[in-house]
Specification:
Blueprint: E1 4-12, H1 19-38, H2 43-55, E2 76-82, E3 88-94, H3 100-110, E4 115-117, H4 118-127, H5 141-152, E5 168-173, E6 179-185, E7 206-209, E8 213-219, H6 221-226, H7 229-249, H8 260-275, E9 279-285, E10 290-294, E11 298-304, E12 310-313
Bound molecules: glycine.
């Protein structure tokens, strides 16, 4: 099977002055993941490597540089899902983990549960060899200044440098047919302490089923949760494969093909129409064909084209 990889650095306003940084961040993430897939490595390693690169890049709202909550603290969420077993590993509201996607993977591979939150997740991290950091190590002065401005006046996204929804994610298919999706976020700026959005929730911010496809979402979590957007996208992919099989068995066989790109756009249409939400998603169908869509001014994303070149867009 030909490997495939798609990544995103969030759907948000992305002012002109940050476009190049977002582009470079997506390129580095693609390079980190593709280096693994191209030499025959596993999709889980590629997704982890790509998302670690995005978490470590302070331009995005994940890992270091994430938005602060109303108490002035970073609370991080992440998930990774295995499309073969349908098992996920998710963590939410962790404050002392530099790379929550690594912890999500530990949960996926070494935990009897699928989601751990807060101090329990951090204890599990220590028990499984992940070093904890001080919460302040994740806080950038840029975010501290924005938080102060919001406290002094009314909360405004303007203070956050347009950096309002820089959730990150990746979906990878490897040559052995394993399909993995992952998502990581600092959540929304000035969120209530303890607030968890769509990102770490199976079916909302992420879903993968090797029979249909894998998805990672970004945007306003409260709206994405209403339409369970990642699972909705995978259900549409499944229906498209069933429809195509059915069409092939009919005498005329002339049903217009439904593309992964068209289905990604249909999901974002549903997000806008049914949940009045804004955001975006990336996906790979089970054959590794990419799709992406957003209804925000911009989304940072990239994928590997059939000739192995990188397509990056912001
Ligand atoms: N989509 C990220 C969040 O709402 O937390």
């Amino acid at each position: 099977m030909k490997p495939s990889l798609i990544v995103h650095g969030g759907a948000w306003s992305i002012p002109d002055e940050f476009v190049e940084e977002c582009r470079a961040g997506c390129r580095s993430a693609l390079a980190a993941g593709w280096e693994i897939l191209a030499r025959g490595g596993a999709a889980i390693d590629a997704v982890e490597a790509a998302i670690v690169a995005l978490e470590n890049d302070p331009i995005f709202d994940a890992g270091i540089g994430s938005h602060l909550n109303r108490d002035g603290r970073v609370e991080l969420d992440a998930i990774v899902m295995d499309g073969v077993t349908l098992k996920a590993g998710a963590v939410a509201a962790v404050e002392r983990v530099r790379n929550p996607i690594r912890l999500a993977r530990k949960v996926l591979e070494s935990c009897e549960h699928m989601m751990l939150v807060g101090s329990g997740a951090e204890r599990f991290a220590s028990q499984h060899g992940l070093e904890l950091c001080a919460p302040e190590e994740l806080v950038l002065e840029r975010e501290r200044a924005a938080w102060r401005q919001c406290r002094e006046g009314a909360h405004s996204w303007e203070f956050h440098l347009g950096h309002d929804h820089g959730t990150v994610g990746a979906v990878a298919l490897d040559r052995y047919g394993s399909l993995i999706a992952g998502t990581s976020t600092g959540g929304t700026c000035c969120k209530m302490p303890g607030r968890v959005g769509d990102s770490p929730l199976i079916g909302c911010g992420c879903y993968a089923d090797v029979e249909a496809g894998g998805v990672s979402c970004t945007g306003w979590g409260e709206a994405i949760m209403k339409i369970v957007m990642a699972k909705t996208a995978v259900d549409l992919l499944r229906a498209a494969f069933v429809g195509a099989r059915h069409a092939a068995s009919t005498p005329s066989g002339d049903v217009a093909p439904v593309t992964p790109q068209g289905l990604a756009e249909a999901c974002i249409h549903l997000l806008a129409e049914r949940a009045h939400g804004r955001g975006g998603l990336i996906l790979l169908d089970r054959e590794g064909r990419p799709g992406f869509a957003f209804n925000t001014p911009r989304m940072a994303y990239g994928y590997v084209a059939p000739d192995s070149s990188f397509v990056i867009s912001v």
